[in-house]
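Example 9 (inverse folding). The structure is encoded as follows.
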C-alpha cells in the first residue's frame, strides 16, 4: 500500500451523504385554488432538493382520492356545503398526512410535500393540530396565487388532461371543472399573518414572493430557490469543450489548449448555434482555456461569462495523470474510486461528485432564473452533474451519465418535466 493511501482515512476518501445536509425534517403543505400550478411547484422543489441530496417525496391527495374512490367524482363532490363529501375530503387529506409522517419518521425522508388545495383555515388547523404531536417535524406552507388570465387558462387546460377528465367530452370536462372551481372559490381563505404560520406566497409563479415567519437553513434555501422560479419558455444548451490536447493523451484535469479537432468543433458549434437564430443567448464557460477557446467564435454575436464554478472536478494529485497510471501507482485509490464514483474524493484536496453538486448549486439557480436561452460550455463531470438535475436521475447514476465530446444537449423545460434533444455535430463538414 502506498504511503499516500495509508494516510487517507475512509472519511477523507469518501464524501458522506450527510456532509452537506442539515438534519431537518419538514412537511411542506401546498395551498391554493385548483389550477394554480401547485403540483408543478411541488415537482420543481422535489427536483432541486433531491439533486441537492435530500430525500424528498410528493404525496398528492388527488391521486390518493382517485385510488380510493376512482375518477367519477363530479363537481358536486367538491361542494363545501355537502358535509358528507367534505368529511371524506378531509379524511383523505389527513390519511395522506399520516403517510407523510410515517415516511419521515421511519423511512429516511427529509422533505415530504403534501400536495393538495388546503385552501381553508379549518383544513390547515386540522393539519397543524396533527403535526404538533410530532416534535421533530417542521412545517412550511406554500401558497400559489394566480391572477394572470393567460397563465390561469394554460393551467386549466393542463388540469383538463388529468385522470379526472380523460373519460369526458372536452366541453363537459371544462364545464365540470369550472363548477368545481366555483365551489372552491366560495370558501377559499388565502394565507395571512393572522394564522401565525410559516409560509411562502407565490404570486403568478415568481412575479412576486411573500414570506412570513421563515426560520432555518433548509426553509431559507427553499425560499431562495422559489424566488428564482418561473415558467417562461426557454431552452438550456449544454456541451463539453472541444477535444483538448490533454484529452488526446487521456490526462486528467489540466488547462491545455484545444486540439485541431477541438478547434473544428468550436467552429461547428458556432455555426449550429447561429443557425438557430436565438435572439438572446447567455453563455457561461469555466475559466479553463479549453472552454474559453470553444466559446470564442460565439463571442462575435453573444456575450460569454466565465466562472470557476463550472471548472472541471478537481482531481487533486492525480491532475495530469491517466487512469492507467493511477491504477499502476496507487491501486488502492483506483479501486476505491471504482467502488463508489459518486462519493470518491480525489486525494490532496480533490473533489467528489457530491462536492461538485454543492459547488454547482449557484449555477443551477442562475440557470433557473434566466428567462431566455442559456448555454453552458463546461466539462464532463460538471455536465453530468447538471444533467442529473434536469433529468431527475437517481444520484447513484450521476457519475455514469453519457456526456460525449462534440455533442450538444438541448433541454426544454415543460410543466411535467423536460424535452431533451442531442445533436452530434458532423465535424467532417467544417474546414478551418
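The amino acid assigned to each position is listed next.
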Amino acid at each position: 500500500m502506498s504511503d499516500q493511501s495509508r494516510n487517507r482515512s475512509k472519511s477523507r476518501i469518501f464524501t458522506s451523504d450527510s456532509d452537506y445536509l442539515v438534519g431537518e425534517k419538514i412537511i411542506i403543505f401546498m395551498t391554493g385554488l385548483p389550477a394554480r400550478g401547485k403540483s408543478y411547484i411541488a415537482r420543481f422543489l422535489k427536483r432541486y432538493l433531491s439533486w441537492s441530496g435530500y430525500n424528498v417525496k410528493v404525496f398528492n391527495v388527488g391521486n390518493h382520492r382517485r385510488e380510493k374512490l376512482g375518477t367519477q367524482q363530479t363537481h358536486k363532490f367538491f361542494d363545501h356545503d355537502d358535509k358528507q363529501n367534505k368529511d371524506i375530503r378531509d379524511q383523505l387529506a389527513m390519511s395522506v398526512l399520516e403517510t407523510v409522517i410515517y415516511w419521515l419518521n421511519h423511512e429516511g425522508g427529509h422533505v415530504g410535500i403534501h400536495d393538495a388545495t388546503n385552501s381553508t383555515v379549518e383544513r390547515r388547523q386540522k393539519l397543524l393540530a396533527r403535526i404538533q404531536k410530532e416534535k421533530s417535524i417542521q412545517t412550511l406552507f406554500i401558497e400559489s396565487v394566480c391572477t394572470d388570465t393567460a397563465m390561469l387558462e394554460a393551467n386549466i387546460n393542463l388540469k383538463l388532461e388529468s385522470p379526472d377528465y380523460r373519460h369526458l367530452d372536452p366541453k363537459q370536462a371544462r364545464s365540470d371543472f369550472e363548477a368545481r372551481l366555483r365551489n372552491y372559490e366560495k370558501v377559499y381563505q388565502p394565507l395571512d399573518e393572522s394564522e401565525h404560520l410559516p409560509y411562502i406566497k407565490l404570486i403568478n409563479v415568481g412575479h412576486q414572493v411573500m414570506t412570513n415567519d421563515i426560520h432555518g437553513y433548509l426553509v431559507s434555501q427553499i425560499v431562495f430557490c422559489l424566488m428564482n422560479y418561473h415558467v417562461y419558455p426557454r431552452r438550456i444548451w449544454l456541451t463539453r469543450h472541444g477535444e483538448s490536447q490533454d484529452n488526446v493523451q487521456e490526462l486528467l484535469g489540466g488547462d491545455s489548449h484545444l486540439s485541431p479537432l477541438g478547434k473544428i468543433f468550436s467552429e461547428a458549434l458556432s455555426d449550429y448555434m447561429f443557425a438557430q437564430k436565438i435572439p438572446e443567448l447567455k453563455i457561461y464557460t469555466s475559466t479553463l482555456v479549453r472552454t474559453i477557446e470553444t466559446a470564442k467564435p460565439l463571442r462575435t454575436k453573444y456575450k460569454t461569462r466565465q466562472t470557476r464554478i463550472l471548472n472541471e472536478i478537481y482531481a487533486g494529485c492525480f491532475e495530469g495523470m491517466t487512469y492507467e497510471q493511477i491504477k499502476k501507482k496507487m491501486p488502492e485509490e483506483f479501486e476505491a474510486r471504482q467502488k463508489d464514483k459518486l462519493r470518491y474524493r480525489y486525494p490532496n484536496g480533490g473533489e467528489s461528485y457530491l462536492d461538485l453538486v454543492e459547488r454547482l448549486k449557484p449555477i443551477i439557480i442562475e440557470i433557473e432564473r434566466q428567462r431566455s436561452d442559456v448555454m453552458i460550455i463546461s466539462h464532463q463531470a460538471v455536465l453530468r452533474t447538471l444533467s442529473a438535475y434536469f433529468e431527475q436521475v437517481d444520484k447513484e447514476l450521476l457519475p455514469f451519465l453519457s456526456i460525449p465530446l462534440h455533442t450538444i444537449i438541448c433541454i426544454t423545460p415543460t410543466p411535467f418535466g423536460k424535452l431533451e434533444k442531442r445533436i452530434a455535430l458532423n465535424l467532417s463538414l467544417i474546414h478551418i
